[in-house]
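User: What would this chain look like folded?
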Amino acid sequence: MIELPVKRTMMQGYLDDANAGTTTVTVSGIPAAPGGYMVYVYANGLNPGATRSANYTIAAPGVGNMTTLLTDLASAYFSGTFNLVTATSPDGNYMVFSIPGTSFTLTATPTTASDGNPRAPVNGIQIVPE
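Assistant: Here's the prediction, encoded as structure tokens.
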């Protein structure tokens, strides 16, 4: 289990391009696993007073593209609780994808922002055998 200080450290820093562009992370060389992998993507930016949404897409051999919409609510800073994004509730700070193989590409594409400054942060990626 990850302790709270480690969770907070991960969720305070993030990768994005700061210019409303797409952030891309490619992962390869993952050892083969019989059941494939669950890929957890964590996202929570610094957005005082602004609600921002973005599409997070995993492209992986054998499954094609899988996209999840995540909405980062205004001033919703990480409190120590992870909130799963679902198809019916995009408000949260992490999402889960399932891949069968040993590589994937994550793209985070901003869609909207209440302050006119769309962003798509990526705080961390966790890859867990199924």
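DSSP finds one helix and seven strands in the chain. If you want, I can go into more detail on any region.
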